[in-house]
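Weekly modeling sync, notes
Attendees: AB, CL, MP (scribe)

Item 1: holo prediction request
CL wants a bound-state model with alpha-L-arabinofuranose before deciding which constructs to order. AB pointed out that an apo prediction alone won't tell us much about the pocket. Agreed to run with the ligand included and paste results into these notes for async review.

Input as submitted:
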Amino acid sequence: MQSAFTHKSNSQLMALKGPSINASIFFRALLFLLPLMALAATAQLAVAQKVQLTVDPSRLGAKIDRNIFGQFAEHLGHGIYEGVWVGPDSPIPNTRGIRNDVVGALKALKVPNVRWPGGCFADEYHWRKGIGPQRVIGLNPNWGGVLEPNTFGTHEFMDFLDQIGAEAYVSVNVGSGSPQEGAEWLEYLTTAQPTTLAKERAANGHPAPYKVAFLGIGNESWDCGGNMTPDYYLSQLKIYSRFVRNYNPEQQKEHQLLKIAVGPGGGEPRWTEWTEAIMKAYQHHQWSWDINGLSMHNYTVVKWPPAFASTGFGETEYAQILKATLDMDALIAKHSVIMDTYDPQKKVSLVVDEWGAWYAPLPGSNPGFLVQQNSLRDAVLAALNLNIFARHADRVRMANIAQMINVLQAMILTDKEKMVLTPTYHVFKMYVPFQDATFVPVVFDTGSYTHGDITLPRVDAIAAKDPAGKLWLAVTNIEPNQPAEIEVSLAGVAAKSAAGETLTAPKVDSVNTFDTPNMVVPKPISARVAGGKLSMKLEPKSVTVISIEQ
Ligand code: AHR
């Protein structure tokens, strides 16, 4: 921009004065003055762009539960089959049928929990079809009507979790199953007693009981999960909560099975009424039923059916999508108010177990497979949502991005033996230090970034202290055209140094592909220190995470 401006001024002056005897003196002066003018303009810009952040490590907030970095893996498209499961006979390197490259990548994310088998799929899932040597080949009517081979079932899921080091979040079938079917599944999974189901589990290769940390009681029961009214669902919830249990008293001593009820899917009255109905009932619940979480689903989609392209878009679509994603904050606040009314002690977590960007399917892909690319825009979107969850850490104690591999806003894309890590993956990796860290307030003026009729905050930031006492800061520069100069003061403490990683790319729609996997990857960044303050220049459209030495 500056060189264009200089060029224009130059030619305008030329046109005004015309070539004359004084021209050479004039141009020599100009040659001297222009860089100075440009420098002054840049300096002005830099001053105007400076963002002061004050981090106060003496005022600690809630713990940022590691479970907000949870994943969601549904039997949908190539999310499970090809993405996780290739089978033991595949030439793709695997351990008992599970891809080694995917396991390696996910281990680095320290995935706390995986929600499975759906989604809408969960309310049509019958677990017995997916155990034992003879799997039942069925259909997946929700997602493309393709064959469901059931080769990835209970044991394969638990093995996968074991390989990546995550906990199980199992969604039980309320829509087309029964409390008995759900109860037997949990008995099969958890009992240590020599019941017939436990013996069957042992015969299928796992004598020891499995641990199930979280139980989802239905999925979107107001829609694909059975189109239930709040009252009808509530009666089901009470029954399932009573009978679908952890059958292993030993496990319950250290880790209960936390039960998550279906909650809202938006902010309109039908959703606030839903939250109201469940939470009101919870307030006076008796010993025979209980919940520990209320699920909320909120995709960044702008309009339905999803129409935004996941590649080849410009600044307008960047701004529109980010504006829409920031609605997450108000939505959480809205449902938190209702939850606070009936649960002021915040015993029930708000579990955002489906979130992320939902774009138009990639041209040529099966529309039922929800295939989309993942760009720098999604990295920024992920950081903004994680920041929102962290700010609501007293109520939001779990979240699951949709979905882990090859579906919607994925961490990983695969194509046969090839695998690529997405920009969203890198944000999750950069944010690992925030898992179970304690929220620390950051005071800053967000400033604003305007594009057309959209105005967004220019920067966003969160800070936290990890369990070892180290201070971490995450700053997102939303503004896609201007860097942000940030200056960080630590209230009452002089910062000594800071370093970490920053993620950006040439364009808002830059993506990683199998051929160019390193277009959007984090790079090291460190801060300058003067007078106990840290200064850093953040690239436009970037996500930065640093640790601060005091
Ligand atoms: O993530 C895709 C689908 O979106 C899930 O199956 C469903 O719960 C939601 O509507």
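Recorded for review: The chain is about 30% helix and 25% strand.
Action items: CL to compare against the apo run; MP to circulate these notes.
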